[in-house]
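Supplementary Methods. Inverse-folding protocol.

Structures were first reduced to a discrete structure-token string of length 219. This string, shown here, constituted the complete conditioning input.
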């Protein structure tokens, strides 16, 4: 019974790794569409009313090229084997995740969120996503500085759940369009919220299950 559970758990983890690697590859392909840098490439084709704004243009390209680093670095933070056997890599990739999120991907995401498609609802959703993402990451940093490891891990789970919105937002978009064929702006309004709020809810469930027997004083 125990061995069967272990094998099932390993298979589940390996499946998640393969699935994440696949979506990371897709995100990398999307990122590479903007090289060499062009003002009308891919998504920018429908943002021509804003691309002339220098702050929007800078924020967009900063976000595109930094977010992929966050996805790469963030995934390494949740491997117990890596953290125990290769703590130096864990720490360096953790710093990469934190610094890129706090100073590049997070702030640039807020700026482009102000110009999001889908009206005021989408703008609020994307701006809140950026605020929460930066805030959770900063709290996680403070916790590890104070040696509050368990609490640090909880806040990193929340932070990475929001980072994953880059993937889940697109997944929901493709699914909604395939199933219901809604209007483009309606899609933006839905996925702008659904892309990260559900991630955060799942993160809280994972935290409750993973740390339910841990010392509560670490919060």
């Amino acid at each position: 019974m125990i061995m069967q559970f272990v094998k099932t758990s390993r298979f589940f983890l390996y499946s998640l790794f393969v699935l994440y690697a696949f979506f990371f590859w897709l995100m990398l392909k999307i990122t590479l569409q903007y090289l060499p840098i062009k003002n009308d490439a891919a998504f920018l084709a429908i943002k021509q009313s804003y691309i002339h704004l220098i702050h929007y243009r800078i924020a967009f390209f900063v976000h595109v090229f930094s977010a992929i680093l966050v996805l790469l670095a963030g995934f390494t933070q949740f491997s117990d084997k890596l953290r125990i056997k290769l703590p130096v890599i864990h720490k360096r990739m953790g710093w990469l995740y934190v610094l890129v999120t706090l100073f590049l991907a997070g702030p640039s995401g807020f700026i482009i969120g102000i110009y999001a498609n889908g009206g005021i609802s989408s703008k609020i959703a994307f701006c809140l996503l950026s605020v929460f993402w930066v805030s959770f990451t900063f709290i996680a940093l403070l916790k590890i500085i104070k040696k509050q490891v368990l609490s640090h891990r909880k806040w990193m789970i929340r932070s990475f759940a929001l980072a994953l919105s880059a993937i889940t937002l697109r997944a929901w978009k493709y699914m909604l369009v395939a199933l219901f064929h809604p209007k483009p702006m309606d899609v933006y309004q839905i996925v702008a919220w659904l892309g990260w709020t559900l991630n955060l809810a799942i993160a809280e469930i994972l935290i409750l299950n993973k740390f339910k027997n841990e010392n509560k004083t670490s919060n």
